[in-house]
Amino acid sequence: EARYYDFVKSQYLNIDPTTKAYMLDIARQQEFNEYAYNLPERIAEYVEGLGTYSMAYNTQLDEEENVAIAFIEKYREGTCKHFASVATLLFRALNVPARYVVGYVTETEAGEWIQLTKLDAHAWVEFYVEGFGWKMLEVTPQRLDTELTINPIDVNKMYDGTPLIPEPK
Known about the structure:
By secondary structure, the chain is of the alpha+beta class. The protein is 34% helix and 15% strand. It has five helices and five strands, in the order αααβαβαβββ. It has helices spanning 2-11, 17-30, 39-48, 67-75, 80-93, and strands spanning 52-53, 77-78, 98-104, 121-129, 133-137. The chain has a three-stranded antiparallel beta sheet. Strands 1-2 form a two-stranded parallel ribbon. Helix 3 (39-48) packs antiparallel against helix 5 (80-93). The protein is globular. 22% of the residues are buried. Mean pLDDT is 89; it is low at 144-149.
């Protein structure tokens, strides 16, 4: 864990000086404390309140020199990538390792196939807790309040082109 945490700190605290100063100014205004137990919730609440989620946002935002700062100061409308970027940079400015993550979010039932589309694409932030690991944080307004439950079952088989389906206990 100690070696991995050193690696995490070396890779996931990078932030340019201008953005770091800007984010630290926000942190001072919002009274964020890197040691506070509720820092993730406070950052999520702040970032969610920055603006409106819209797929029809002004795409000139993406051409700005510093998209995160422009989003905060000027546009206040964007998609999950804009909200997640700001949160990632806030964590990093506060010396909390964080990474911007992209993937897909959808509802499904166990054992059922689903069709993913670009509308299921999503971005979020993960921050690192020493001794625990990466923790996901949703910061996009109007997020899905869906809880994911995974029950691991120790099953395996040689791949033969068919799905691996565990037997009920």
